[in-house]
Amino acid sequence: MFRISNHYVSKIVFTLLFVEVLVLLGAAYVGAAVRFMELGETSATVPHLDNFFTSAIAFTIAVIFSMSAMGMYQLDFDEGLRNPFLMKLMPSFVMGFVILTLVFYLAPDLYFGRGVLILVFAVGGAGILLARLIFFKTSEARFMRSRIMFLGGGPLAKECSDLATRNNRYHKYDIAGFIPIATEDLCVETSSLLKVRDGDSLVKLARQNNVEEIVVSVLNRRGGFPIKELLDCKLQGVKVTDAATFFERETCQIRVDSLQPSWLVFGGGFDQSFVRTFMKRCFDLACSVILLVLTLPIMLLAALAVWVEDRGTVFYSQERVGKDGKTFRVLKFRSMRVDAEKGGKPQWAAQNDPRVTRVGNFMRKTRIDELPQILNVLKGEMSFVGPRPERPYFVEQLIEVVPYYNVRHSIKPGITGWAQVRYGYGSSAEDALQKLQYDLYYVKNNSLFLDVLIMIDTLKVVLFRSGR
């Protein structure tokens, strides 16, 4: 994997994306060539071909965006080209067609004709199918894999190796073996241990086993820890990665159970600079105004539906904890019964919560209930993307039992967030821990690039009605 704006991106996914961009650009030119060859026309007799490259770019971006929103770049190698993929491809092209139609309406000079458009989409669909077929057939090839070994043989090494061997991971690994540490209990198979002879160095072992990366998966680094040999490995071109970074890279989480505080202090990320804050605020304001204009009719209908169902209040205001631990009132459409907390004691929201009304269930699935929070964003209390704000009652409890929980309050909470598109509703301290690990990843690596990815994933959640 490599990093774009601090966010880890799979080389496999990036390669597939790059290939499909070329396929779609090529499809635009092939479709146009076939169409105008049939008509005997050229760029001299078809004026709008002067903007054809821009039109091809618009077509490519529309389809790639639609495929991303449908989750087609969240790969599952076990699924391959089975029905779920085919069921996503057609809706992706339909969405791309709708987006492109809107672009042509706003910029008519980019329109390249109905006949060309049909051919371009047909060639593009065939090209994507062929590209995916070749990609999944070659995904097991050795050049798509990285060869690694683990320093350690204890529980942390076992957990890291299990993560590395998941079949549907975006990064394929060959595990050369494990080098046990005397101070740890052995938790891996003895057959997977590397034979270390007297005088063998880590560099020599890495060279003998064609290892590209050493993952340091040792909990206790005191006494006999080979720090000098690891430095030699790094100087000789062998990548050295600690377990915390390995987990962050492979799961897009920060694991708090095996995390050393120094990693947070001395590691990269946690950009809270003026430039980042200013860009994020501009992004929030632009998105809020656009979304408010586009969804105003939907919000009016939602307000009417909430009132008609039980004649109760339309909006729901609740105290939440924001940046720096300051509280504010979050605004939502009411999705639960009026007496949802008639006992007066706060309760966790859960999946299939019986307190949710029929209208509220639909709004939760489609995220319509969150739309009034646009006003919180405009007021500066929230951002569009960030950790979801929690109630003070639960925050006080979670700070006591979940390590580093307060770190999520170092930035503004968001309408949607990394944990929301990666994890479901939380109804316990364990769920809060899992969501915190995603939130910590976002706090550490937040950027405009990651914000855009989260918003695309949020669109996918809305489209598939898998609200979280």
Automatic annotation (TrEMBL):
Organism annotation: Massilia horti
Gene Ontology terms, MF aspect: undecaprenyl-phosphate glucose phosphotransferase activity
GO biological-process terms attached to the record: colanic acid biosynthetic process
NCBIfam families reported for this sequence: EPS_sugtrans, EpsB_2
InterPro entries: Bact_transf, EPS_sugar_tfrase, Sugar_tfrase_EpsB_2
Transmembrane segments: 12-32, 52-73, 85-106, 112-135, 285-308
Membrane topology: Multi-pass membrane protein
Family statement drawn from the similarity comment of this UniProt entry: Belongs to the bacterial sugar transferase family.
Gene Ontology terms: cellular component: membrane
Pfam families xref list: Bac_transf
Keyword Transmembrane helix: yes
Name listed for the protein in its UniProt record: TIGR03013 family PEP-CTERM/XrtA system glycosyltransferase
Cellular location(s): Membrane
Major localization listed first in the record, in broad terms: membrane
Domain called Bacterial sugar transferase: residue spans: 280-463
Keywords carried by this UniProt record: Membrane, Transferase, Transmembrane, Transmembrane helix
Source superkingdom: Bacteria
Coiled coil: none
